[in-house]
Write a structure and sequence with these properties.
It is built from 14 helices and eleven strands. It is of the alpha/beta class. Strands 1, 2, 3, 4, 5, 6, 7, 8, 9, 10 and 11 form an eleven-stranded mixed β-sheet that branches. Helix 6 crosses helix 14. The radius of gyration is 20 Å and the shape is globular.
Length: 363
């Protein structure tokens, strides 16, 4: 999701993207594991983690802990590595497991229980582990089809509004999506169709989508920043697909990162194609600094961080009353009625569905 030359900044602001080697940042100079000292809190996350320096500094001043951040690739890669290292974890808190991967993390005992202070202010619909409190909801976002407003205006064609619309002849050869086996939004889009059409119905839907010329690429950056004609990066690259699987928060990002800022977003969202993703953080089972980790989880659902988060990671806050930036209200409101799926159902079918999707769509 990059705009002109801000590819790294923008891509780092969206859930589950990129394949980057382990890196470290933050104010601590400690090395190895989670730092091993009681004054450092080490956060392990996917590459999308971002927060204002002033907000992190305020936490450090008030809590007495220094924050160290280890970024470890996309969401799936980071979760898998955290599971493999759970007996000797790299950090104290893990941020970035979403509802499509939550069951994998919980079944592998990645987290220890902790009921974060302020959890009563988090909407109940986001508390998917409310009985055991192994994870704390931090944000949510919607995987949705985005459209290029100029293309549809020039062609005097109404943009699609639903999953069904995408299979119609009017939208033949217009959609690009990500590989469900390698991409978080690609998987989210597959799960959205499974939620909409059911276990037996989604393969037939994808047969129609394939027959209508859907293009599949490996990841979000290629789809959005190269193939999609509506993004600044896509226009520069000569992208010719006016429909792309991305996020409901992509349009405000197109405005925020553009210079000069346009009066309206150049892209829109097909609201009837959305799948809700919820992101969580948790205290790692063998964390070295459990006290500091608990304080950091409290911080993540505090109003200061929740209100800072949208324009840093382009996701929506889960805390009731947290202010949402005007750019989100104007250009990227959350989906009104997104498709959802219980983590247990995702766990029961995810691998099977991805395998079947691969055979059906890619072969």
């Amino acid at each position: 999701m990059s705009v002109n030359n801000i590819g790294r900044q923008f891509a780092a602001a969206v859930v589950g993207l990129g394949m980057v080697t382990l890196s470290a940042c933050g104010s601590s100079g400690s090395t190895g594991g989670s730092g091993g000292d009681s004054t450092t809190v080490t956060l392990v996350s996917h590459d999308s983690w971002a927060a204002s320096k002033s907000v992190v500094a305020a936490f450090e001043k008030e809590s007495g802990y220094r924050v160290r951040v280890l970024k470890d690739g996309d969401a799936g890669q980071a979760v898998n590595k955290a599971i493999l290292t759970k007996d000797n974890p790299q950090g104290d808190v893990f941020f970035g497991v979403d509802n499509t991967l939550l069951s994998r993390a919980l079944d592998n005992g990645l987290f220890q229980p902790y009921r974060a202070e302020g959890l009563d202010r988090v909407g109940g619909q986001y508390q998917l582990d409310r009985d055991k409190h192994r994870v704390t909801p931090v944000d949510f976002g919607d995987v949705c089809v985005n459209y290029d407003k100029k293309y549809f205006a020039d062609h005097r064609l109404a943009p699609p509004a639903s999953f069904d619309d995408l299979t119609k002849p009017a939208y033949r050869n217009l959609l690009v999506t990500e590989n469900a086996a390698t991409s978080s939004p690609g998987l989210g889009f597959l799960l959205g169709t499974a939620a909409r059409y059911g276990d037996r119905g989604w393969p037939e839907y994808w047969k129609k989508l394939k027959a209508n010329g859907v293009k599949v690429v490996d990841g979000w950056e290629q789809a959005y920043d190269q193939e999609f004609s509506g993004s600044a990066g896509g226009r520069k690259a000569g992208g010719d697909r006016p429909l792309v699987v991305s996020y409901a928060s992509s349009p405000p990002a197109e405005v925020v990162y553009a210079e000069p800022r346009p009066k309206t977003a150049p892209t829109g969202v097909a609201d009837g194609t959305c799948f809700r993703q919820i992101e969580f953080a948790g205290l790692l089972s063998n964390a070295h600094n459990t006290k500091g980790g608990k304080a950091f989880l409290d911080f993540l659902i505090g109003t200061r961080f929740q209100q800072d988060m949208p324009l840093n990671m382009f996701v929506y806050p889960v805390v009731k009353g947290a202010a949402v930036p005007a750019e989100f209200t104007a250009y990227g409101p959350a989906a009104k009625d997104p498709e959802t799926m219980a983590p247990a159902e995702v766990a029961a079918h995810r691998d099977q569905w991805v395998k079947a999707w691969t055979s059906l769509v890619l072969k």
